[in-house]
Specification:
Layout (H helix, E strand, L loop, with lengths): L13 E4 L4 E5 L2 E6 L4 E5 L1 H9 L4 E2 H11 L4 H17 L3 E4 L2
Antiparallel strand pairs: 1-5, 1-6, 2-3, 3-4
């Protein structure tokens, strides 16, 4: 499977988390250890929910729609916040763009 470098995650992309990461739930949050970077990352409750949804490839637009059904927020806010989080995750090499 060929991966393309992530420069900017968009609503049209399909993303998936890397399978070799170590992570653990701590209360309602998620702590992720990125071995390659020797770094820890912490996600709040909604970030942890998104992390679980990234176990299998998912379209970013579909992810935003699903979150919109589960959380009360304007679609534009969800899009903005999800794209910001996914781009941070991409830079940290926690997720990758997957084939659609």
């Amino acid at each position: 499977m060929t991966e393309r470098p992530i420069l900017n995650v968009s609503l049209a992309d399909t993303v998936v988390r890397y399978a070799d990461l170590l992570f653990s739930a701590v209360d309602a949050e998620m702590v992720i250890f990125q071995v390659k970077q020797d770094a820890y990352f912490s996600l709040d409750e909604i970030g942890a929910d998104i992390w679980h949804r990234l176990e299998q490839p998912i379209g970013v637009g579909a992810l935003c729609e699903a979150l919109g059904r589960d959380y009360e927020a304007e679609p534009a806010t969800i899009h903005r916040d999800v794209l910001a989080l996914l781009n941070q995750m991409a830079v940290a090499e926690l997720i990758r763009i997957a084939p659609p």
